[in-house]
């Protein structure tokens, strides 16, 4: 079968970061939804990889290791997905731990900002939603603020409280672009620019991101993602072709209640692109034949 038609979902989050399902439950849901090749890509963390791989194979899915690294580039947070790396690589594991460090202190500052506008107890409230104490995310605050009746849904929490210029937002310095790409490629994987349409870059800044990313050894870009509309897919198909980037596909699934897209429920990659998994065939661990 053509690689383009593989139902690959190479972007998803579990309770090891800011998703609401355990790796085992995503694997089962992905298999039910028709996914054939899966990667769990928790934020700044590979602690779920062994469980995800085992659950994938038990559910009949082929598996690629994954993570989504938070990077600061040109003053903006950019996400770099890593695929097909050795998840025990010491430099990668150390780099991710350094990237996670500071999330708890950031969370305290976020709660202090919210307290100033009369929202109390957000630190303790958010922590009740956290599955991994090293990975407190804005998403956990969003879930608590919905529970507390501050907003009707997590999207409005982000809009009103957790984005730049709002009381629960704390500027944070994430990993450097070159470091994140280096950790992934040094561990034998491929680095991919996640959901490029989400960044508020000028065309010049976007060009700088892509060229610097490639200069550091980055090779891929998400084209079909739960974050892209049809026009974004057209635009980034052109961009991936222009720069000779491998194309990735992933739902960015976080939760059955919050995510617009279920695992694998995405358009196929356009046939003019080279899927990133064609370059990762020897890194895929295969489900046992049944
Ligand atoms: P953090 O790494 O703590 O800054 O949190 C980033 C996460 O927040 C992203 O991975 C998304 O899961 C979530 N997020 C960011 N913006 C939004 C939004 N507008 N609506 C819902 N979730 C969002
Ligand atoms: Mn997330
Ligand atoms: Mn992301
Ligand atoms: Mn994500």
What does this structure look like?
The chain has 290 residues and is of the alpha/beta class. The chain contains 10 helices and 8 strands. It has a 5-stranded mixed β-sheet. Strands 1-2-3 form a 3-stranded parallel β-sheet, with helices on one face. Strand 6, helix 9 (203-215) and strand 7 (220-225) form a beta-alpha-beta unit. Helix 1 (23-32) runs parallel beside helix 2 (49-58), helix 3 packs antiparallel against helix 8 and helix 6 (138-147) packs across helix 7. It is globular. The protein starts with 7 loop residues before the first strand and ends in a 40-residue tail after the last strand. The mean pLDDT is 97. It binds adenosine monophosphate and manganese (II) ion (3 copies). One manganese (II) ion is lined by residues 13, 18, 43, 139, 254.
Please outline the helices and strands.
Elements: E1 8-9, H1 23-32, E2 37-38, H2 49-58, E3 62-63, E4 66-73, E5 76-83, H3 90-100, H4 103-116, H5 122-127, H6 138-147, H7 154-162, H8 177-186, E6 190-193, H9 203-215, E7 220-225, H10 230-243, E8 246-250
Parallel strand pairs: 1-2, 2-3, 6-7, 7-8
Antiparallel strand pairs: 4-5, 5-6
Helix pairs in contact: 1-2, 3-8, 6-7
One manganese (II) ion (MN) binds next to loops.
């Amino acid at each position: 079968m053509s690689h383009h038609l593989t139902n690959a979902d190479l972007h998803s989050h579990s309770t090891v970061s800011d998703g609401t399902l355990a790796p085992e439950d995503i694997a089962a849901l992905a298999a039910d939804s028709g996914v054939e090749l899966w990667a769990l890509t928790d934020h700044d963390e590979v602690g779920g990889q062994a469980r995800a791989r085992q659950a994938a194979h038990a559910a009949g899915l082929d598996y690629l290791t994954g993570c989504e690294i938070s990077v600061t580039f040109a003053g903006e947070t950019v996400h770099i997905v890593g695929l097909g790396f050795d998840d025990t690589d010491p430099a990668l594991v150390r780099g991710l731990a350094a990237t996670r460090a500071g999330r708890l202190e950031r969370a305290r500052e976020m709660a202090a900002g919210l307290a100033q506008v009369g929202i109390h107890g957000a630190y303790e409230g958010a922590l009740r939603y956290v599955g991994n104490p090293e990975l407190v995310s804005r998403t956990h605050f969003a879930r608590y603020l919905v529970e507390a009746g501050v907003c009707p849904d997590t999207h409005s929490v982000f809009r009103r409280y957790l984005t730049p210029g709002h009381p629960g937002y704390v500027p944070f310095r994430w990993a450097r672009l070159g470091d994140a790409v280096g950790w992934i490629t040094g561990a034998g994987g491929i680095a991919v620019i996640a959901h490029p349409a989400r960044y508020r870059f000028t065309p010049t800044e976007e060009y700088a991101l892509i060229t610097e990313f490639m200069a550091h050894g980055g090779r891929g870009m998400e084209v079909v993602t739960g974050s892209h509309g049809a026009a974004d897919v057209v635009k980034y198909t052109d961009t991936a072709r222009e720069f000779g980037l491998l194309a990735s596909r992933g739902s960015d699934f976080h939760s059955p209640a919050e995510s617009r897209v279920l695992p694998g429920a995405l358009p196929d990659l356009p046939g003019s692109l080279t899927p990133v998994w064609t370059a990762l065939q020897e890194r895929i661990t295969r489900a046992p034949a049944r």
